[in-house]
Design brief:
The complex is a heterodimer of chains A (405) and B (297). Chain A has 405 residues and is α/β, with parallel strands linked by helices. Chain A has helices spanning 3-21, 45-64, 87-100, 112-125, 153-170, 186-202, 221-230, 242-254, 272-277, 279-282, 298-308, 315-334, 339-348, 355-359; strands spanning 32-38, 76-82, 105-108, 129-131, 146-148, 177-183, 206-213, 234-238, 260-264, 286-289, 379-384, 387-392. Chain A is built from 14 helices and twelve strands. Chain A has a seven-stranded mixed β-sheet with strand order 7-6-8-9-10-11-12, sandwiched between helices. The termini of chain A are far apart. In chain B, 55% of the residues are buried. Chain B is an all-alpha fold and 297 residues long. Chain B has helices at 3-34, 41-59, 63-69, 71-84, 95-121, 146-168, 170-180, 182-187, 192-214, 229-239, 244-261, 270-284, and strands spanning 136-139, 142-145. Chain B has a single domain, classed as ABC transporter involved in vitamin B12 uptake, BtuC, CATH 1.10.3470. Chain B is 69% helix and 3% strand. Chain B is built from twelve helices and two strands. Chain B has a two-stranded antiparallel sheet with strand order 1-2. The chains are: A alpha/beta (405), B mainly alpha (297). Chain A binds chain B through residues 40-43, 45-46, 48-49, 85, 184, 211-214, 216, 218-219, 221-223, 225, 242-243, 246-247, 250-251, 253-255, 272, 275-278, 281, and chain B through 5, 8-9, 12, 16, 114-115, 118, 122-127, 129, 133-136, 143, 145, 217-219, 221-224, 226-227, 255, 258-259, 262, 266-268, 270-271.
């Protein structure tokens, strides 16, 4: 064997030996993929955009802190899909995103009607799904993979009514007549149903206007005419479609209707309302929501505002922020990115610390066998001088409530 | 029900219908002259709303004036779009293949415009805050929303201007000739292709102006067209395909039926009334209300 051949043989031998004698290579860590199925086009695109902002903020925080430690620092990545403006599109988006690659958990889809469809897909694909949607029947179908962090619509209705009645009584303006006006999307339907069937009657309140429409609303004149004619003491208001909502509020101002407006959902506390109808008209309008910045969350809100340019933070980014953190905690506990393992961890989770728990009032996250968050309570948010503030519960409120008529 | 309440429903319906009417005549003109079903018509309305919005916030132009000022740029946009795209799929060749190509082209334009607007301007709704959007004229017991009243009368004026243009000017007569019989019109020295361009320009300028008027009281968002496009098509078919007066009356009728439906049906079924009326009219007069003038302008 020539000198050259010996040298080449030695070099090859060394090269082959390198993996054995060198330091062990870093274990390749797979990313943990979270699906976000929300409307990014169509009439609810703004809400989807806000949800995406919250999810991205949580993901950046988690990844900056070293990812999921139990999975060797695995990073979280977001796979977004556009739910569009119909249940069919939302279902199709969920099918696409859940079948294309391995997804560990999902979030969405804002509108309860969409969530009902999307969670069916998640259940079939056995991917745990976190939602802020309110409709009762989301967690009444025996699904194992659906987790609803918000208080359900019927519970919100009961608690919102109690609060409004109590506030009115305290201000010597007892409520005798109420109105229900809103669209026929699932969350509003489930909010109005118990009010219409029993709750108002049980408190001796007469239902004087009950108007429900299919979005879009062509004109609000007939609705507000009825409000003007019957003068209810409180209006429960559920118009998820922004143009519909604006038409009603403009008409309320035009017809000079003075009544207490209690909104149903966070759609009523988004920044664009100030620009559209002005802060004077919004002042003291309240909304019952699943999440809103609480006392002690000033830093989080500041960070969100700096990052996004939004004037304030609302339920939609807050919930998706909490949901991502919750999935992270579940993956840590499961020590796995497998959707079934994460589902099992979520079913058993009892979280009282960390960003997820502090974002969702009252600060503890655990689920019952239906997937509903135990102890979830609604918050009341009130517009004051062009900004919505949490006013109930009082211990977590950022402003005291103001009542006027 | 008292008479004043009934009158309020009628007046409200007509005010709502006025803007539907203006939206619809642009669509009818395009179909009448070019035989093109323009699925992007609602998207040009949306762009008209945005242009009016920027006129208001950047230049301080009142939206009622801004709506009129949308007409020249949209007319030019219409001419260019026709020259670049539509001229390739209209006016000659196999009508069936042309129809397929037109449908795909206008549907594609609609998708591109909506999605590009969402990407560029964000889905965040915008609105022009005008005092008259939340004020009313009190006429006895009736309340007439000021923005809708102004929009209604401006829509009437624009529709009348279109009528005068089509019946009293040489260009208008040439457009009608090109619509009635393109072959005979070309023998008379009328450039039918150029007439198609004018029809498309005027058609989208009208719907952009209607969008501008709508923006005086309705929020603007990239997806706003879906709230109106079906009603535009219903108005055009109800009036008799391609008939300008028919589309105008069809638009007014839709507003009126939407409003009067509430006297007998719950709010949730408001648009059911529109479609029941639509089916009844087509059952009695399959050619639409202005059927004898169908396919003419």
């Amino acid at each position: 064997m020539s000198l050259l051949s010996r040298a080449v043989t030695l070099a090859l031998a060394l090269l082959l030996a390198l993996p054995v004698v060198g330091p062990p290579p870093a274990v390749a860590v797979d990313d943990v993929k979270i699906a976000l199925v929300v409307p990014l086009s169509g009439r609810w695109a703004r809400q989807g955009q806000l949800k995406k902002m919250g999810a991205e903020m949580a993901i950046d925080e988690i990844n900056a802190q070293g990812g999921i430690k139990a999975l060797g620092g695995a990073k979280i990545v977001l796979r977004e899909a556009d739910a569009g403006d119909s249940v069919e599109k939302a279902v199709s988006a969920a099918q696409r995103v859940l079948t294309r690659e391995k997804i560990s958990a999902g979030i969405g889809s804002w509108l309860s009607s969409f969530t009902l469809g999307v969670t069916e897909v998640a259940e079939r694909q056995q991917v745990p799904w976190l939602t802020l949607s309110y409709a009762d029947n989301i967690t009444e179908r025996g699904f194992k993979y659906t987790f609803q962090t918000s208080p359900v619509s019927s519970a919100q209705a009961e608690q919102a009514l109690d609060l409004v009645v109590e506030l009115a009584k305290r201000n010597n303006q007892p409520i005798r007549k109420a109105a229900l006006i809103g669209d026929n999307t699932a969350a509003t339907v489930f909010f109005f149903k118990p009010l219409r069937e029993k709750l108002l009657q049980a408190k001796g309140i007469e239902l004087v206007v009950d108007e429900v429409w299919t979005p879009p609303l062509p004109d609000a004149t007939s609705i507000v005419q009825k409000l003007r004619a019957t003068q209810p003491d409180v209006v429960f208001y559920g118009a998820t479609n922004f143009p519909d909502s604006i038409q009603v509020l403009q008409k309320v101002k035009e017809f000079g209707v003075k009544t207490h407006i209690q909104g149903v959902g966070a759609w009523l506390v988004t920044p664009e309302y100030v620009k559209t109808v002005g802060k004077e008209l919004l002042d003291n309008i309240q909304a019952v929501v699943a999440a809103h910045p609480l006392k002690g969350q000033e830093e989080l809100v500041k960070k969100f505002v700096q990052r996004t340019g939004e004037p304030f933070m609302t339920q939609d980014p807050l919930c998706s922020y909490a949901h991502v953190w919750l999935i992270k905690e579940a993956a840590e506990q499961a020590k796995s990115a497998d959707p079934k393992a994460i589902r099992d961890a979520l079913a058993k989770i009892d979280l009282t610390t960390g960003p997820a728990a502090s974002t969702l009032s009252p600060g503890r996250i655990r689920f019952d066998e239906r997937g509903r968050r135990i102890g979830a309570v609604p918050l009341i948010v009130q517009w004051q001088n062009g900004e919505p503030f949490t006013v109930v519960p009082v211990n977590l409120a950022t402003r005291p409530v103001v009542w006027h008529k | 029900m008292v008479a004043s309440e009934l009158t309020q429903y009628v007046v409200t319906g007509l005010l709502v219908g006025g803007v539907y009417a203006l939206m619809s005549i642009g669509l009818a003109l395009i179909f009448g002259v070019m035989r093109v079903v323009n699925f992007a018509q609602g998207d040009f309305m949306m762009l008209g709303m945005y242009l009016t919005y920027y006129y208001a916030v950047v230049l301080g132009i009142d939206p009622l004036v801004g709506a009129l000022v949308t007409i020249p740029p949209f007319f030019v946009v219409g001419l260019v779009l026709h020259r670049v795209f539509l001229a390739r799929v209209t006016g000659g060749g196999d009508p069936n293949r042309e129809m397929d190509a037109q449908l795909i082209l206008t549907l594609g334009m609609s998708l591109i415009i909506t999605n590009a607007t969402t990407m560029i301007l964000s889905p965040m709704p915008r609105a022009i805050r005008t005092a008259y959007a939340t004020q009313a004229f009190a006429v006895g017991p009736l309340l007439l929303n000021q923005a809708r009243t102004y929009a209604f009368f401006m829509a009437l004026c624009l529709a009348a201007a279109v009528y005068v243009f089509l019946t009293r000017t040489d260009l208008g007569k040439a457009l009608r000739a090109a619509a009635d019989d393109p072959e005979a019109a070309s023998y008379q020295g009328i450039n039918v292709r150029a007439m198609h361009g004018v029809a498309f320009g005027v058609g989208i300028a009208l719907v952009a102006a209607a969008g501008g008027l709508l923006a005086t009281y309705y929020p603007i968002e990239p997806n706003v067209a879906v709230n109106f496009i079906v009603l535009m098509f219903v108005a055009v078919v109800l009036g008799g395909l391609g008939s300008i007066p028919g589309a105008f009356v069809g638009g007014l009728a839709i507003g009126l039926v939407q409003s009067l439906t509430l006297l007998v049906l719950p709010l949730q079924l408001q648009n059911v009334g529109v479609f029941v009326a639509f089916l009844l009219v087509l059952y009695v007069r399959p050619q639409g209300l202005f059927g004898r003038r169908a396919r003419t302008v």
